Description:
Layout: H1 7-27, H2 41-50, H3 60-70, H4 77-103, H5 109-124, H6 127-133, H7 139-152, H8 155-159, H9 163-180, H10 189-192, H11 205-224, H12 229-234, H13 248-255, H14 269-300, H15 307-325, H16 336-358, H17 364-387, H18 394-405, E1 411-414, H19 417-429, E2 437-440, H20 447-456, H21 469-475, E3 480-484, E4 493-496
Parallel strand pairs: 1-2, 1-3
Antiparallel strand pairs: 3-4
Amino acid sequence: MFRSIRFIQIVPFAFLVILLAVVYLRSLAPGLTWANHGADGGDLIAAAATGGVAHPTGYPVYLLVARVFQLIPVGTLAFRTNLLSACATILAASLLFQSVFHLWPDSSQLSKNLAGLISAFAFGLAPMIWSQAVITEVHALHGLFVALLLLFSTDRYTQETTSGRLDCALGLTFGLALGNHVTIILLIPILLTSLPSVESSTLPGTARYLRSIGRRFAWMGIGLAAYLLLPLRAASHPPVNWGNPIHLNGFMWLVSGNLFQDLFSALPLPVVWERSQAAAVLLLDQFGLPGMVLGLSGLVFFFRPSRWNWLSLWIMGVHGIFAVIYGADDSFLYLIPAFLCFAVWIGLGFMGMAKSLSRRFRGAGPILGLSIILYLFVLAGTHWTEVDASGDLRAEQFGRQVLDQAPQQALIFMRGDRAVFTMWYFHYALRERPDLVFIATDLLPFEWYQDTLRNTYPELVLPMLAPFPEVVIASNPGRDVCNLDEAQTPSLICQQTPGGP
């Protein structure tokens, strides 16, 4: 994908990669973190490290890539997994740099370099994107897949690529992207458009289109085969095994996200309006007023009726709607693909303005471009404390304190994602305090979780008919019983059961 980077592009490209790497490494979480909506990190790290299955929808592609990063011999297990997000975001920004070259090929090399840098930095330094680049979460890899699909959809790329290669690239990438995050299905128009002009076939247009679409869906199926890894991972009875997807019912419950479907319940119109306003404020917060002006200029005044531009409008609209109607606390993270497109519009807005100004003032384009890049870094400085995860030790301290306070052989009942996933990280991924039994109280009603507990703790007596905490406690006399919630400073409340020492 980077073959077309010429020597004259290497310097700005290296400048982009090095600066983003410095920013991300300085603000990267050193271990497990709760910063930036990162509570799921413990679950994802533990699932990847133990060969397990993460929370719905399973995220098989993410788990595979995360496991590769976990093998890097540097830092803590959590730090290595956090590195995945940083690398994915740098790659996504690099793809935006390339996309600008394909979207406006008739401008000067200097203008395209500056526009590419502006789009890439606007994306990489936007606080929401940056916040996900320094923690363990699936959104950074999701952004990378979106950037890759959009690069494949630029007119110049389709004009220079044969049908078979483009179909393979689009289909396989789309399938793998679905294996990372199912909301990539919102980009299905990408698979249904972007037909290449390089085609040796003499078939009529409709037949050629259908054959091309068929190839894409076939390659997408190959990428989707990543989901077959979930039952294979579950078959080894890992301690993190959401849905236990070795059977069809468990598999469908997992990959369909059944656990979260209630979050799509209809919202009252006042709430929808309020959330829509919040999304607009978030857009302004990402790029500031000058960035908004540039982005809207790129969209409105310098808009070229190309396939990529129509797709970017679709992505903005559909992700905006999804983020507004999805009732999760972190639903606005689903705006990341929309912000990605807006960042490219900012680069295109600069390109158009520079072209107009250069006709009147020689050298105005480079001055404007460098001024915008400087502005983006100044804006990033105002967001540093907001997204910086390098000093967030809450999750690490929480886990250590629980392990230090817990009595030997205790049963520990946990509530809340922060508490549960943090202790899964320490207990399952790092294998600390094997004498303890950690039980997620809210998951006890699920049969798959009961089976997971029996496989993980063979000595635990878990009643088949009534696995409620009080019944579990009564069935395991002689153990101290502790309760743990997700308070930032854990207060482990423990008591001895009858029959104890």
